[in-house]
Amino acid sequence: GAAVNGATMPVFAVLFAEVIQALAAVMVDNPDYSKANMWAIYFCIVGVISGAANFIQIHFMNLSGLSFTTRMRKLAFKALLRKNLGYFDMPQNSVGALTTRLAGDAAAIKGATGVRIGSYIQNAVGMGVGIGIAFWASWRLSLLTLACIPF
Asked: What are 27-59's pLDDT values in tens digits?
């Protein structure tokens, strides 16, 4: 889902250019809208695919983040249960502090996984597809543009 979602923006750019070119031809040459209508239908198809990919990305990334967080909570709780009694007598290891730490660590893990990883995949694929389309259109201009990007 994230990879398809990342590829849609560069594809939208190409389709948008084709729609503008088809509409410019309609205005200049003849009033035949068939080519513009064809590109508009492609635009709608990519929009539907993008919407489905967005839903799939968010759903499954949330699901994976949730399952990972649940697994980490269970492992942390098992580790707490294996501690000896003297560990719980220390003031920094009171029941409230351990419960707060268990909930806070799980929330931090969930924030680092799931949707955030999906966003990284989406952005990486979008950049890769965009660079690929740029090289397909004009490899010389693409090389010049990449040389000017500060890394």
From this structure: 766 677 777 788 888 888 988 998 898 898 888
- Residue 27 structure tokens: 């205005």
What is each CA distance from 51 to 44, 54, 55, 65, in whole angstroms? 10, 5, 6, 21
Sort 72 into a burial class: Cβ within 10 Å, 0-12 / 13-18 / 19+: middle
Query: DSSP letter string over 35-90?
Result: HHHHHHHHHHHHHHHHHHHHHHHHHHHHHHHHHHHHHHHHHHHHHHHTS-HHHHHS
9-20, pLDDT tens digit by residue? 888 888 888 888
Cβ neighbours, 10 Å, residue 95? 8
